[in-house]
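for the record, two folds in this file. i put them one after another cuz i was lazy. first one right below, seq on top, structure tokens after. the second one comes after a little note so u can tell where it starts
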Amino acid sequence: MKPYQTAMGLALAVAGGLVLFGDNSPAGDIAEPVTRGRATSAAPAPRAGKDAKPQAEVAILRLTPRAMLVGESGEATFASGEGVFQGQNWNPPPPPPPPASNAPPPAPVAPPMPFTVIGKAVADGAWEVYLARGDKTYVVKNQTVIDGTYRVEKIAPPLMSVTYLPLNQLQQINIGVLD
């Protein structure tokens, strides 16, 4: 046998002996409850601490009734925000709204050009520009209307002038220099 096993067996034997032959007599002292009331003349004087300063008597406060904490139904939840389960919001308050201005709203502006220039060519002395938008390809010349929204006004490389018809605003697309 190893030495620690021998030591453990000996400790077990000593513990068993104490259980069998130890003092099994019941304790004769009974702790009685102490009734505390408000400080009266018959009450003991306040206890003195290490510094010999008198310490005040400790008072235990009465419990708060359950109905007061969780409501009459007793079904308070975290979301209901009542009683003991009230939530606490630690977020900073939102910034105050900006002051209302009397300035008129800005004028509407045409959206950015949705077309990509694929290329350009001269056909019969007039310029043609090849545009792409999504899966569609357009071949446009002067005064061509695209989808009822844009009208080509002028093609003069390196720019093409296009009018956004709903707002009648002129926009330009860079189509590249002469080849």
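(here's the note) second protein begins now
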Amino acid sequence: MPIEAVTIVQASYFVAAGLFIFGLKRMSSPVTARGGIVWAGVGMVVATLITFLTPGMENYGLMTVAIAIGGIIAWVTGRRVAMTDMPQMIALYNGMGGGAAGAIAAVELFSGEAHGAAQLTLGVLGGVIGAVSFSGSLIAFGKLQGLIKRSIRFPGFNYLNLVILAATLVVGAILVVHGSGGLQGHVTLLFVLALVLGIAMTLPIGGADMPVVISLYNALTGLAVAFEGFVLDNAAMIIAGTVVGSAGTLLTQLMAKAMNRSLANVLFSGFGESAVAGTSDGPGGTMKSIDAADVAVMLGFSEKVIVVPGYGMAVAQAQHKVWELCQALIARGVAVKFAIHPVAGRMPGHMNVLLAEAGVPYDLIYDEGEINAEFETADVALVIGANDVVNPSARTDKSSPIYGMPILNADKAKNVIVIKRGQGAGFSGIENALFYLDNTRMLYGDGQAKAAELVQAIKAL
């Protein structure tokens, strides 16, 4: 390849990588996140176009067809996917990234073109990590989508995973030592073991831990892409993969910290099983119901109301009605704020995205650390579809699986109103002591319908 062409290609890849980093930086704030996505998208366009212009590149037809198919599918599904299904989409697309990195490694290893111990090692590691991320993300998608109804675990499942991991590493080591040329059977076995490992790792993990799992596989996908970037000598892949991997690792740590859990505990403890039906009797007595008219009076004559949204709000698609309710309260002079827990919903930032979609101003949205001290001065904490993130057992009950987990202090408000469809436990299957407190009242029903009732009742005051 001519030196000038190499320079142009490498320079373009660095420009693309810079756009990725700039876009990711802007995604750190809700105010600039939309622009960040656009800038990162421009970077991807630059990286794709310069690949087409690289001297010696072949298979333009297959590349064009693949991009067209992938682009059309992504465009259609991206526009049609419901906000409640966004976590599944993230898990699926993240799996596709890991699968792509694994496929690159497979091509290199099957062809025997990867030479040298360093290149072979990175190729094998990238392939294994990408394959684990691919199959693990598909399992996470199945759990979130409801295709896999329960976690599959049995005594000794951790030891089985260790055996599979050890076998994968042994086969990988053989390929590094002897080279992949002529060892196609070993290459096939390597990827089969890696795919099985991803499945075996994820099946035992309960749905309540999926935010952490999705973050982890996002980090693994970035790492796999970076490793394959070294194998292909592609600067854009190296930089983009490293950025995604490091950001995903940090996010995974933040998610685990927000649940007061270690990553090892998430992966190997088996906690986080889907919810089981609860009863009205529970910690400290019974749940006490209230009707919408009384809630409207309580809200309408309050000075401060803090709204705590959860996944139940997403399921009911109630975010627009909730914001309409808040606007009605603000018009009456009520101070309204939204409190967001880091692991509320089914993926990091899920509630923020929902509220932004409804048009809630960013300056009304606060995270746990910013808002917790204000609950004691709030007249009403309005909990809509949240469960574990407001469970006071995390502070008081040492026998609870979530003991020590930082929570939103909704129970410290003068009054707590919980909009909930029924009396069952939350996604983790743990009874919520908040629902049984003397200052808590339950407004049963669909979140959107009840929010609409409250809007009308408040307007009629």
